[in-house]
Amino acid sequence: MRRVAATGWLLLLGGTLAGCIPNGVERGYDTPPPPRDAGRWSRAPEEQDRPYDRGEEAPPRRAERPRRNADMAPPRDLPAADRSVAARTVVDRQTGVARLPAPAPAWEARPVEADAREVETQDYTVAPGDTLSRVADRAGVAADAIARANNLAEPYTIQVGERLTIPGGRYHLVRAGQTGIAIARAYGVPWSQVIAANQLAEPYTLRTGQRVLIPGTSTRSVSAAQRAAAFTLDVDSILTGGEPAVAVNQAPAKAVATPRRVLAATTPVAAPLGAPGQFAWPATGQLIRRFGPGGSGERNDGIKIALPLQTPIKATADGTVAYVGDGIAALGGLVIIRHGGGWTSVYGHASKLLVQRGQAVKKGQAIALSGDTGFADRPELHFELRKGRTPVDPVRQLPAR
């Protein structure tokens, strides 16, 4: 009986946590490749999208072999400064991605304890000297949540004797260095649901002392490790929940000019200002995968460009590096750059990463070398452009070829 009960509990737990995990197809990345011993490493011809440009022959699909491209010497035509940077990279033997020495991302460097305060829905009568923020602090609730529950408009003035509804729920107090991703992992919920529950808006900046409503019911019966495992990292989470909280009366740090200066993982970085202008192609090669739905029903949030190994990948516009790493398994070696005007560019499947988080980069600057990391089945670049949180077809934003 104990074995049956335990099995049932695990099935129930699995179903509960599964509801928190975004589907791999929905994220807009490749699904995992088929087993290598099945002889089906390449997609079937009918599942491949017709390339836009057939002027250049694509490199052959990768044969059955280990990924060692990160150990290759940088190409000779790479500028001396970039060759020097590439020489300092260190290969992760598990993922095959080489990157510069750097601290772990803030959501790993500063984990969050799931200590949200649970508040019951209640009424409160405004007393002399009360402000909305004081009422919120005493109740342990987000001031914005009280304002929404009572249809208050800025500057959120309240009157003595006024009755306010205090909305119930679980409210997490944001501490220094915490990120939205770490908060979501601590409670085992998608960060996108936290955004929706709190009606957070771009640039999704968290501040120390802020309270955020955690959707769903208490998960205290589930271990911290299980809650963290229920969270799946994706590009949207990095863009909206990857920056550390900003302290009150503190401005984010300015971007640095060189990868030799490494910012602390918990240092918030200022977003770039100004429109990015005309985007440039990140590399020259055959376009082998279109934006949008694929032949098998999966969605691609970008395009894929076939490239020889170790081809320099260049920034599509001026910007600030928001992420460097291999935390999204499907995309392998990954660089994400923020541009002005709410634009973001994404570069995946790289073998060597040549920049650091918080670094300012220029249009045309080499930021990585191409590879076949992640779920790539040949040397290629996964490239995305996003306006806000929405992926857009890069081909419509790039110069005609």
From TrEMBL:
Q: Which PROSITE patterns match?
A: LYSM, PROKAR_LIPOPROTEIN
State the residue spans of region: Disordered.
26-84
* CDD domains assigned: LysM, M23_peptidase
Compositional bias per record (Basic and acidic residues), positions renumbered to this chain: 37-70
Stored InterPro entries: Cell_wall_metabolism_enzyme (IPR050570), Dup_hybrid_motif (IPR011055), LysM (IPR018392), LysM_dom_sf (IPR036779), M23ase_b-sheet_dom (IPR016047)
SMART domains of this UniProt entry?
LysM
Pfam families linked: LysM, Peptidase_M23
The record's keywords, sorted A to Z, are: Hydrolase
Q: Which residues form a coiled coil?
A: none
Q: LysM domain: which residues?
A: 122-166, 170-214
An annotated Gene Ontology molecular function: metalloendopeptidase activity
The UniProt record lists the keyword Hydrolase = yes
Q: Can you say what this protein is called?
A: Murein DD-endopeptidase MepM and murein hydrolase activator NlpD, contain LysM domain
